[in-house]
Amino acid sequence: MTASVTAILLAGARPTPDPIAVAAGVAVKPLAPVAGRPMIDYPARALLDHPAVARLIILTQRPDLYAADPATAWLAADPRVRFEAGGQGIASSLLALMEGEGVGYPLLVTTADHVLLDRAMLDQFVGEADGADIAVALVERRTLLARYPQSRRTWLKFRDGWWSGANLFWFGSERAKRVIALWQQVEQDRKKGWKILAAFGPLALIGAALRILTLRGGIARVGRRFGLDARLVAMEKAEACIDADKVEDVALIEAILGNALHRNSSPVRGGGPRSGGGVAPSR
User: Fold this and answer.
1) Which segments constitute the MobA-like NTP transferase domain (predicted)?
2) Distance (Å, rounded) from C-alpha 215 to C-alpha 6?
3) Alpha carbon of 234 to those of 37, 49, 142, 151, 166: distances in Å?
4) Is the bond preceding 106 in cis, omega lying within 30 degrees of 0?
């Protein structure tokens, strides 16, 4: 598709001190270093380097911090990037943004701690979500544990697998506001799967309890209830659901980045080192 997507990067701060920010000695978590770079640098570059993304909006309460930091000052200087003030909740901030000017559809939303976000993930998500009113990316438990058995996530259990969020959301039209308004009602319980399911109605809750409902079918059914096309995108890469949510996650992410750098810089058969390898900034 052409460069028509507005990417939104959630870079807000918690009301209480974040353990990762405290451990790193920085004011806000997105500035915490991961393998020598602020964590926000990784998803921001991945989004801006993707051909489908036309612009990037960073939702944060402290845009001044990013402009002042030499490692993230490029965000404030890039004409495709703009900062918007975030509110107290994700859903309310998104609704306010959608009501404003200069924000067109489709919207792709992700988080500043999605350090491992890459071109392959975005290719799959944009390709499968394009045309939907709303889409959500998830990773099935077997996909993750086959690569990273030590990783611990929050799982929703359904007949078609156990699923964990990949911090990628697609809002393709104005109709998506109906679901975001519901999200606003339950976002304080976003880690408590049962309360979220209950908000979608007793059928979803009972179906999940009895494991007679597939998540794919459930999302489609929720979409029909709201009069829109809703899709699940089952991500192929296990890394899609590994974000820097906890201090121990950062260690795993740095190991993954280190392994990728080693693979990309290892000698090829019959020649010298590969060119263009590693995870160094592309700008």
Assistant:
1) 28-153
2) 27
3) 29, 23, 12, 18, 9
4) yes
Percent of the chain with pLDDT over 90: 54
d(CA 143, CA 132): 24
**Predicted TM-score (pTM) of this structure:** 0.85
- Is the CATH number of domain 5-243 3.90.550.10? yes
Q: What distance in Å separates the CA atoms of residue 275 and residue 220, rounded to the nearest whole number?
A: 44
Dihedral-angle region of residue 35 (phi above 0 means left; psi in -120 to 50 means alpha; beta otherwise): left
Counting beta carbons within 10 angstroms of the beta carbon of residue 121, is it exposed (0 to 12), middle (13 to 18) or buried (19 or more)? buried
Instruction: Report CA 189 to chain centroid distance, whole Å.
Output: 18
- Structural contact between residues 215 and 156, judged by C-beta atoms closer than 8 angstroms: yes
Measured in degrees and rounded to the nearest 5, phi and psi for residue 68 equal -80, -25
Q: What is the pLDDT of residue 183?
A: 75
Domain positions in the chain: 5-243
Task: Please give the mean pLDDT across all residues of the chain.
Answer: 84
* DSSP per position, the chain: --S-EEEEEE----SS--HHHHHHT-SSGGGSEETTEETTHHHHHHHHTSTTEEEEEEEES-HHHHHHSTTTHHHHH-TTEEEEE--SSHHHHHHHHHHSSS--S-EEEEETT-TT--HHHHHHHHHHHTT-SEEEEEEEHHHHHHH-TT-----EEETTEEEEEEEEEEE-SGGGHHHHHHHHHHGGGTT-HHHHHHHT-HHHHHHHHHT-S-HHHHHHHHHHHTTS-EEEEE-S-GGGG--S-SHHHHHHHHHHHHHHHHHHHSBPTTSSBPTT-SS----
Per-residue model confidence as pLDDT tens digits over 214-245? 888 888 888 888 899 999 999 999 999 999 98
HSE at residue 266, side-chain half, CA atoms within 13 A, is 7
